[in-house]
Specification:
It is built from nine helices and nine strands. The chain is α/β, with parallel strands linked by helices. It has a single domain, classed as NAD(P)-binding Rossmann-like Domain (Rossmann fold, 3-Layer(aba) Sandwich), CATH 3.40.50.720. A seven-stranded parallel sheet has the order 3-2-1-4-5-6-9, sandwiched between helices. Strands 7-8 form a two-stranded parallel ribbon. Strand 5, helix 6 and strand 6 form a beta-alpha-beta unit. Bound molecules: NADPH dihydro-nicotinamide-adenine-dinucleotide phosphate and 2-hydroxyethylsulfonic acid.
Length: 254
């Protein structure tokens, strides 16, 4: 079997671009997300374009039983060939001041961005440990490096991703497993549409006045870290567009 990439959140944005990038390079793909129709069209598209071997698994990363069941149902020979796990599924919900933010939004962000990453990692890890190699790439954010106004729990969830990534790297050292944190700044995807709950004008305005990263810019960076020689591990990588210096500072066109 080909080298295999397991990608969460492959129905959109960065995860979908990763599926395309790795498929184009000859990887077999295990693509996951909640939207079954999108997984099906992704599989059809990649098979037609790159003759990729691709299987899809539809589950909500917040639900540990669903994660374990879906991963349990993936054929063992596929799991034994996983070379890279990209923990990408995630979201922000709302951008409200601490005292007004919706508690349910907070719980969904923590359950998805933190617990989801833990559940998927623990379900896949036995197969990497068995191979005595592998690479886990966790998608954090500049929001996990600095907090910003009204970023509160989204930032906290991404600080947790950063901390867990560092801990994983230490604990998995003895198993020869690489662990990388990728922390993008603004990337034009469905992220803002989700964050602003379908409000197109708020979502669009998030990308006005500067050229943000594209999902493929980030996927190419992820691919680079995943395909370095066996003895090299990029630990931590922050990537922004040129008009962004941190979570808060932009040089927007006048
Ligand atoms: P998108 O909204 O375009 O994609 C998010 C992906 O995550 C979708 O495929 C979605 O699939 C999946 N997802 C969300 N919730 C769940 C869930 N509960 N279970 C399973 N899958 C889920 O956004 P991006 O591509 O931008 O986001 C990808 C990652 O990058 C996220 O972790 C985000 O925090 C991070 N990031 C994004 C930045 C940006 O500016 N866009 C910057 C920095 C980091 P589905 O809905 O089908 O389940
Ligand atoms: C997404 C980038 O700056 O909107 O993680 O938090 S930001």
């Amino acid at each position: 079997m080909n080298k295999t990439a397991f990608i969460t959140g492959a129905t959109s944005g960065i995860g979908k671009a990763c599926a395309e990038k790795f498929a184009a390079a000859g990887y077999s793909i295990i693509a996951t997300g909640r939207r079954a129709d999108r997984l099906l069209s992704l599989a059809n598209e990649l098979q037609a374009k790159y003759q990729t071997e691709i299987i899809t698994a539809c589950f909500d990363v917040q639900n540990k039983v669903a994660v374990d069941t879906a991963i349990g149902n993936i054929p063992t020979e596929w799991k034994e060939n996983i070379e890279v796990l990209i923990n990408n599924a995630g979201l922000a919900l709302g951008r409200d001041s601490f005292e007004n933010a919706d508690m349910q939004d907070w719980e969904t962000m923590m359950n998805t961005n933190v617990n989801g990453m833990l559940y998927v990692s623990r379900a896949i890890l036995p197969y990497l440990i068995e191979q005595k190699k592998g690479h886990i790439i966790n998608i954090g954010s500049v929001a996990g490096k600095e907090v910003y106004e009204n970023g509160n729990v989204y930032c906290a969830s991404k600080f947790a991703v950063d901390a867990i990534t560092k801990s994983m790297r230490i604990d998995l050292l003895k198993h020869n497993i690489k662990v990388t944190g990728i922390h993008p700044g603004a990337v034009e995807t469905e992220f803002s549409l989700v964050r602003f709950k379908g409000d197109e004008s708020k979502a669009t305005s998030a990308y006005v006045g500067y050229k943000p990263l594209s999902s493929m810019d980030v996927a190419e960076t992820i691919f680079y870290t995943a395909t370095l020689p066996a003895h090299i591990c990029i630990n931590d990588l922050v990537i922004t567009c040129t008009q962004q210096a941190s979570a808060y500072y932009f040089n927007k066109n006048q």
